[in-house]
Amino acid sequence: MDTPTKTLTFETRLDLIHEQDAALCQYAELWNQVKFRWFANLQKPKAQQLNRTQFMHEMGMPFSYRVFQGVRQSIKGLIQSYQTNRNNRLVTLDVKIKQLEKTLNKLEKRCDHVAEKGCPQQAKQLRNRLRQKEVKLRRWQQKQAALVAEKQENKTPICFGGRKLLKERQALETGSAIEGWKQRWHEARHREFLLVGSHDESWGCQNAQLSPSEQEDAYQLKLLVPHQLRATFGTTINIDHLQFKHGKAAIAQAVWQNQVKKLDKSIKGQPLSFRFKRDKKGWRLLVSVEVAGPTAQAEWIGDDQGVIGVDVNPDHLAVVELDRNGNPLQHRTFDLRLHYKNDTQRAAIIGDAVRDLMDFAAQQSKAVVIEKLDFQQKKRQYQKQDHPQYARMLNAFAYGKIKDLIETQSIKRGIRLYHVNPAYTSLLGRMKYRDRHGFSDHHAAALVIGRRHYGFKEKPPKQLIGINAKGTVKTEHPPVRMALGDYQYYNKLQRWYQPLEKSLDFLSGWRHFRRVNRVSYSVEARLDGRPGMSPDLIQESTPLLSVHPAL
Question: Is residue 198, in this structure, part of any structural domain at all?
Fold first, then answer.
């Protein structure tokens, strides 16, 4: 099995003299000029776009291929990020519009009903509320139409420097305020540059070479100056005494590997990419390096003894430990209280939860299994919940961050990470394992995720038994599988099960129902307190359960 790798980024603060700071500012200005022009070139129709040689000839600024690669990768990342965010907004708007249309239908029926009853004041309030929601619906539909048209035309309207700062210009009137804004606008547009590396280049990068320093755990950086600036700042800029608070082992391994490569050409070097960013305190250096797990296969924790199934949710991680035969051993919950938190706090909370999860996996010596799912699918799955508190929790949901941290920690710790198809895991877990093992819906889904890794097929019980609010027992038979494939059948099963679940308070398959029936207080604990239930109805339902032919 191949050793997985992950690109991680570590940062440090640069302590520069005035000449070095000025050189980096001029470097960033030249680099961003190329970046803006290249982005404008990509917005043209494909037939009119220039290649790299034509583009450089038109600009009259000869940059090396490696420097231009940094420009190209930076633009590519911006475009991909914008397109991903646009798709996420379309998913969010689609769900919101559908929910609002349902609400409008209910309000219209309620208005008609109140008008028929002869309550003019209440009808007036409902009509005002209805008009407000209609305005909101039209506004969302206009946003959706604009985003769809933008996507069809393949436009990427990116504002370098930020739209917020650009809008500030409209409120300025005096000349001094405009001059101050121009300075801030220029700094916002020219505050970073990227230099990408390659494994076949000296020290992992041709334009910025990171090598060991005489001081322990410190490095020196040799930055190659562009031709346009060499008359002023010389050929290179040497920055000494670089120390990294995090990622010391990964950076030391990469630098050592590049150092050995200079002596032995057969050894593959480690590519290093450098991003220089300027903020209020000065310049920061971000170094990206590939991190790999253990090289020996025996050092990895695999799925020989079982796995840890994980279901990622907006407010917690539902975790179930399974043995090799797919039987649950224990379950855990790692909370993710992300709402009302800023980005730094969310990152810390997610990091702690993922660390606890990986500690649990390492303690049990078992691999981890998660869903092979992207953010749009996961968010669409949970946006069907129509509740303000759930909406706030979903707004803070950082599924991509959680998934990325799990992948990173699995590589660092040498724990195998597997991905499975998430289709209908919640449905099957709710139908088969939720009440049989006393799990929540999410832990039952985590159990199905872990079992799916081993290829176990989930078949629903031959018949389901539920009890409604009146204490009446009802038996339902799932649809026949016929010649349908697994996911076609699960889709058909879902259409059958969802309306049934709303009408009955299901406990589970009939085997577990029979076991619960032997202990009357278990049935009472599960049914007591539900709307329409009373102890009398529970007592009346018990004889019905005992005489049912399926029991």
Answer: no
